[in-house]
Every structure is written in structure tokens, then in C-alpha cells.
Amino acid sequence: PSPQSVANYLNLMLSRAASLSAEGDPVMHNQAALLALAIFLGDHRISGLAGASQPEGDSPVESKAPAVLAQRNDLARHFTISAALQILSQQNMTLAIGEFKELMDRAMGGSGYSFVDLAADMSGMAFARIATQPDSAVRLQELAQQGLRERHILPYIGGLPEGLSKQEFRHRYSEVDSPAYRKQVAEIQQRIENLPLYQ
Fold it and tell me: Which residues of 36-65 are buried (b: 16+ CB within 10 A; e: fewer)?
């Protein structure tokens, strides 16, 4: 099967959440939709972090059509996993840094440091925040029913450095708290905040 945009999956899941929310809590249904999507498209181990158990002997259900964001599967995984981790952190669940790092490294595929990946991570987190705020949860469901597109959920990623080796990263940014690094992150944040969905 040909790759499907993560936006299509979001539209499907949030439209379903909207139909369930008619008699329930839209925030709760959006949370469930995003967690399910992260398990299905991102990494099945999220289910353990979310407190769901896989039936014994069953292998994890995975998507037959790979999900993509900006035509890349790794960015779809970064977006969905980050959205799920944002939800879990809102629920005051303590995530072991090791587990978090392992999930993200696995999503990244060991291709070096990427600010494009970071843009997908930060966008997924921003998406989860508006999906789970009482004043924007229903509006997001309505937008999903109308059809969200990738340009609504992920900012322009052109010009963002990626594939940086440890040496290149150190040469350009020294460390993750350096002014140069913070400037790059601030630029990504600004691009995200410029999207109408996140305003």
C-alpha cells in the first residue's frame, strides 16, 4: 500500500473522537485518539507507558500503509510519539529518560542530529496541547472533520540543519544549551507559532 499522510490518520481518528464526544469528554477522546495513533504509527511500546497492555501472544498491530509527514516516515513517527509523550507528561506520568531516549533514537534511525526531527517533535507536542485543552479540543475535532493538511500541522522545514554528526554538532553548537542552539530552537518555535492552528 502507498504511504499515507499522517494528516489523513489524524483526520480519521479525531473525527471518530468527535462522534464519541457528543455524549462525552472531547479532551479525553482526543487523548485516546492520539495515544492510539502513536501506538499504531509510532511505537507499540507507548502502550506500556500509557498503561495499556498487549494481549499475551499477540504481536503488535502495525499500519500496512506507512505514515509519512513531509514525505518521510521518520517525521510521522517523531510527530505522533511526541504528541503521545506530551499527553502522558500532562497526566503526570513519570517517563524514564532512558525509555524516552530509546523511543526517539529508534524513530530517528541513528541518522545524526536533525533539527527537522526536532521540528516534527515540537509540532507533535504543540498539536497534543491544543487537542487536550478544553477550549480548543472541539475546534480541533471540527477542523479534522473538514480535513487537516500537513501544512496546518507542520511548519516549513526548509533550511533546518540535519544529519549532523556529533563532531559537526559540537563544532556548530558546542552543546544543547548554547546560544547558537537556543537560537535554532527559537526559530523552529517561531515557525510553529506562525501556523494559525497553534495560535
Answer: bbbbbbbbebbbebbeeeeeeeeeeeeeee
Contact 11, 147 (CB under 8 A): yes
Name the least confident of 15-19, 51-55, 76-80. Answer: 51-55
pLDDT at 110 over 80: no
Residue 192's pLDDT is 98
Query: Based on the structure, what is the number of domains in the chain?
Result: 1
Return the C-alpha cell found at 27. Answer: 479532551
Residue 97 has pLDDT above 60, yes or no: no
Q: What pTM did the predictor assign?
A: 0.87
Domain that holds residue 127: 4-198
Check whether 98 has a pLDDT greater than 50: no
Whether 81 and 104 have beta carbons less than 8 Å apart is answered as yes
Sign of torsion over alpha carbons 63, 75, 45, 124: negative
CB-count exposure of residue 131 (10 Å: 0-12, 13-18, 19+): buried
Give the integer Cα–Cα distance in Å for 176 and 128: 24
